[in-house]
Write a structure and sequence with these properties.
With 428 residues, this protein is mainly beta. Helix content is 13%, strand content 39%. A hairpin with a 6-residue loop joins strand 9 (178-183) and strand 10.
Amino acid sequence: MKALAALFLLLGASPLCAATNVYIGVDSAVEAKQTRLALSQFLPEHTTSQADLDIAENFRDIVRADLLYSRYFDIQEDALTAANLDVSTQSLAFWKALAPSLITGKARDAGRVWTFNPRLYDLASGRPVMEKFYQGEKRAMRRAAHMFADDVTRRLAGKPGIAHSKLVFSNNATGRKEIYMVDYDGDNLTKLTSDNSINLLPRWSLDGMRIYYTTYRWGNPDMFEIDLKAGKIRPFTTFQGLNIPGGFSPDGMTMVMTLSRGDDPGIYALDIVTKGLKALMKGFGVSSSPTWSPDGKEVAFVSDRAGNPQIYVLNLASGKTRRLTPRMNWCDSPAWSPSGQWLIFSGRETSKEKFNIFVTDLTGSQIRRLTVKAGDNEDPSWSPDGRFIAFTSTRRGRKELFVMDADGSAPHPLTDLKGSTFTPNWSP
């Protein structure tokens, strides 16, 4: 019964948290000043091939959408001008009047495979400053376009792009909770498991090549590993009781996780190679939902030590803990921002309220509510650049996957997958 009660706690049976009127400087994704960037039409490798033309247009559409979504660029384009057809001195002069940089591209459809050759021009010099060549199967088209868009973002904006990132989550559209993966923009939805069981709480490895999740596939809530490169799923930890993945240390070699082992759930550090365990705390009540700080010095977690679940932070060097949510009724699902400056979590201020998403500084003195009067909002996860937040919301009835800016603005559903969605996690 203790294990079941703990699992209900982890799934957010009821939450908490207090919003104050203190402003927290979590920036929106909207940039004050955008960089002008010209985007030509992408051309077919063979001018008479309709298949080449179609695939070139497809690549351009994806790159364009990625760059617009980033909010870093003011895209300049002219679908009718002859400058789209070449990179002659005259054409480059045309684009130079619109923007300091230009993206061009060519593509070829070779049946089972495609090629994509995009370029980024510095229009002051008239020379390409970045050229990429991609080749692959049809299923890899979107990833190639996303990778190029992220390269452009890093080159021109000096910031990491997130177009190649993905989200993983649990959904019960099949009647059972299975694990799914989707691109950051809601496309390329992929069902990863067919366990016909209860699969929950997926978490990414730091290299983005593996996913860990809790499953009742064998009766016990074990932790399984999805190896995306090898296309294999295998058991990872099968200790008696709860086996729930948390976050990774900065070197990726240690996972912080929730284990019950026949007792109250607690926080443990797991060596992912030897599977050696170290209890991080003793006598701290039911503790769960651990997440490692980006600098590796602290672990945030949830504990009912004060009565209702609250957010605490453990300093790994000193072993001391501090409570971040002294005025909350219920809290769950803490997650560190990539910068390490903020913790986001779901919760509520009173037992009569809905769950909402909150963000706090590391002292707990500043707490800001990001969602208001829009159903239950839970399971927040930061984008790898810290500018967006994925979460689940019932604002349209069933529990769906949403994304909003880091300041709580511009919330929008990410997929139209049927059923209810749970515990999203954004990839590195």
